[in-house]
Each structure stands twice: as C-alpha cells, then as structure tokens.
Design brief:
It is a single chain. This protein has 419 residues and is an all-alpha fold. The chain has two domains: 221 residues, no CATH class; 185 residues, no CATH class. The protein is 82% helix and 0% strand. The protein has 15 helices and no strands. Helix 1 packs across helix 3, helix 13 packs antiparallel against helix 14 and helix 14 runs antiparallel to helix 15. The longest helix has 73 residues. It is globular and about 60 Å long. 52% of the residues are buried.
Length: 419
C-alpha cells in the first residue's frame, strides 16, 4: 500500500466523525452566544464578549501545542524513532506557565481589557489556559494516534459542557459570572475523556519523535505561528476598524460583518481538521505533493463556488437578514469569500509545512501573511477595496513562503534534522 493510499484511507475514515463533532461545536458556540446576549443584555454581554475573545486569542496561540503534538506523535508512533520524554509533561508545563504569566502580568493589561469583573476574569483566564495546555496535548495525541472517534468525542464533550452550562444559567437566572465560568469550563473535557475513554488513556502518554528540548522548541515556534493565525483570523475585524478611521462607520460595520460571515463556512470546520491534515501529510512520506493536492483543490473549489454564490445572492441575503444598513455589492462579497479561501489554503499549506518539520518556515509564512495584510489595509483607497486586497494578498504571500520549503522537501523526517 502506498503512503498516499494509506493517508487517503485514514483521512476518509476521519471525515465523518470529525465533521459531526465540528457541527456540534459550531452550533453550540452560536447558541451559547445567543443565550448570553438574551440573558445578560447589552451591558452584561459586552463584559462576557470581551472575556470570550480574550480566552479565544490565548487558546488560539495554544493551538500550536496541538499541531506540534500531532506531528511529533504521528512521526514517532512506531516507537523506532521516539527518543524524547512523553510530551504530555511538557504541554502541561507550557499550559501552567502561560496561566502563571497571565496572572503575574495582569496588573499591566487587565485594566485595559476588562472593565468589570477584573479579578475574576484574570483568575478564570489563567485557570482556563492552564487546563487548555493538557486539552491541546490530548487533542494532538489522539490525532497523531489516528483515534478519530475519541478525538471527535473530545470536541463534542467540550462543546456540550459549555452548552449545558449556558442552558442551566438561563434556567436558574444566572448572571455574567456564570457565563465567564462557562467560557473556560469546556477545557476540562480532557478529564472526562481520560476517565471514560481507553483510547484517550492510551494516547495521552505516547512519546514524541524528538527529544524533550527539541519538542519544546518546536512547540513554542508552532505557538508563535498560531498567534499570528489568531491575529489574522480573530483579530482581523479589529485591524479593519483600527485602519478605517477615515471611513464611514456604517461602511466599516458592514465590511466587518461581511468578512466574519464569509470566513466562517470554511475556517470553522478547517480549524477542527488541522490534526487530520497533519496526520495525512506525515503519513504521506515521499508522496507529500499528492497528499497535499486533494485538500488544496477541494478547499479552492469550495471557495470558488462560494464566491459565486456570494456574488449572486449575498447582497440580498445581507440586507434581508441584517437590514438595509448592511449593503455591499456582490463583487465585494465575492472578493471577501475568495479572501477567506486564500486564508483556508494558507492553513492547509501550513499543516503540510509543520508536518515536514519546518517549524520556522511555518511560523514565517503566517507572520509574513499577517504583516502583509496589515500593510495592505493601509492602502489609500476605499475601505471595501483595501480590505478585499488585504484578505487576498496577505495569505498568498504566506503561501509563497510555505511553498519554498514544501517544494524542496519530499518527505517528513525527524524534526531535529530540520530548520
């Protein structure tokens, strides 16, 4: 059996389980936000939304732990090339370290971020990101072990815990404090999996293919790239607003909403599939190009079809659902959708780059894309035009960086021989 065939079969087996879990997670997230808005009102929801975003930004960077754990465990799965200590200790230590940094540095930034519930917000954020270190490790270990059923269960339990908490908060007329707790409580889902799943217990202590020191360095580099990704994905509306001071506020609001809506259909599920992609690319061996081609073409095709639909029905849908203030042309919505597609393609090439152990190139691609997008947002033109250019141009530059290393590396190898 060729590497391509093996990778394809494993990926095919993962798609159904992970897709269902992704749908559960996405639906749960939207319902939690809706319940919070209805229960807390505008003022209370503002406090909750800021904390939700802060937690998402930090854990977005911690996704680098998941990515490197997936690569390291998959590459060392046969035990023949696993010189390092079990990486769960390192990931746990990284999570605790980030939690301590949040707590220790909070006097410097918490007053700027949290208007109310400052002490509780800092405490919960520190505890949540510390726990997420183990969550990210388990998610990566299950991906590396190709335990897709347990991986899907981890995603689902995380989402369901938050959803049940939100429903109970509404039923018992809870306040913003309860919703702050709900934001981070899903990260303890790793405890549920370890208590109930033999596959999770078997995967959590699997060794990496590199030494502890190398694994730590790789993980920190992957987290740096994930931080850039978080800025480019979650922080992009902030960048639009910050660079759009000369534009009509209503136009900026419409653009921010449209960018958010056009990104979600591709980026939300693709984020859950990163472990699947990395595993596929590690397994592909010398046939990395063939393994990369299928998801790359699939994402591109979905994006092209989506951009066509956005051009045809997007303007009507936007005004029908959100009102006449949110009026944009079909061309703008199509361009935003193509921009979301290039960002999704950058995610795919990034997964391939980290799979071959080129961690610095992986981080460089994301940071170059982020800086290029910020630079393009400063162009002296209409806000809609410059946002479209930034959405398209930044990720294309990042893909070019990844392409340099992918073109010269035909197979994944021991990460300690890379970079």
């Amino acid at each position: 059996m060729t590497g391509e065939t093996a990778a394809t079969r494993r990926t095919s087996g993962a798609i159904g389980r992970v897709t269902v879990a992704t749908l559960i997670a996405a639906a749960s997230g939207y319902v939690v936000l809706l319940l919070a808005a209805r229960q807390l009102g505008a003022a209370g929801y503002g406090v909750f939304a800021v904390f939700w975003a802060a937690y998402g930004m930090v854990t977005g960077a911690q996704n680098g732990q998941l990515q490197e754990t997936t690569r390291a465990i998959r590459a060392g799965i046969d035990g023949a090339n696993a010189p390092g200590r079990r990486p769960w200790l390192i990931n746990g230590a990284i999570g605790v370290t980030i939690g301590l940094l949040v707590a220790v540095t909070s006097p410097l930034w918490s007053g700027l971020v949290f208007d109310e519930q400052r002490g509780l917000s800092v405490l919960l954020l520190a505890i949540g990101v510390a726990s997420f270190g183990v969550y990210a490790h388990l998610a990566g270990a299950l991906s590396g072990a190709v335990s897709w059923g347990a991986f899907a269960m981890l995603l689902s339990v995380d989402a369901v815990i938050r959803l049940v908490g939100a429903v109970l908060t509404v039923v018992f007329d809870g306040d913003v404090t309860a919703f702050l707790v709900i934001t981070v409580i899903g990260s303890v889902s790793w405890m549920v999996l370890l208590a109930t799943s033999p596959a999770a217990r078997a995967a959590v202590c699997l060794p990496a293919d590199v030494t502890a020191r190398r694994f730590t360095g790789n993980t920190v580099t992957a987290m740096a790239a994930a931080a850039a990704s978080a800025v480019l994905v979650m922080g992009f509306p902030v960048l639009i607003t910050a660079t759009g001071a000369d534009a009509d506020p209503a136009a900026v609001g419409a653009v921010v909403l449209a960018v958010t809506l056009t990104r979600a259909p591709l980026l939300v599920p693709l984020n859950s599939f990163q472990g699947v992609l990395i595993t596929r690319f590690v397994d592909a061996g010398r046939r990395l190009g063939a393994a990369l081609r299928a998801p790359f073409v699939a994402v591109a095709a979905i994006g092209v079809v989506g951009s066509g639909a956005a051009w045809l029905i997007g303007p009507w849908l936007l005004t029908a659902v959100f009102g006449a203030d949110f009026r944009l042309s079909g061309a703008a919505l199509a361009a935003f959708t193509l921009g979301a597609t290039t960002l999704a393609l950058l995610t795919v090439t990034g997964a391939a780059t980290i799979a071959v152990g080129a961690h610095r190139w992986y981080a460089a691609g994301w940071w170059v894309a982020t800086l290029a997008s910020i630079g393009l947002l400063l162009l002296p033109t209409d806000v809609t035009v410059r946002v479209a250019i930034a959405l398209l141009g930044g990720p294309v530059v990042g893909m070019a960086v990844h392409g340099v290393v992918l073109a010269g590396r035909s197979r994944p190898a021991v990460a300690s021989t890379r970079d």
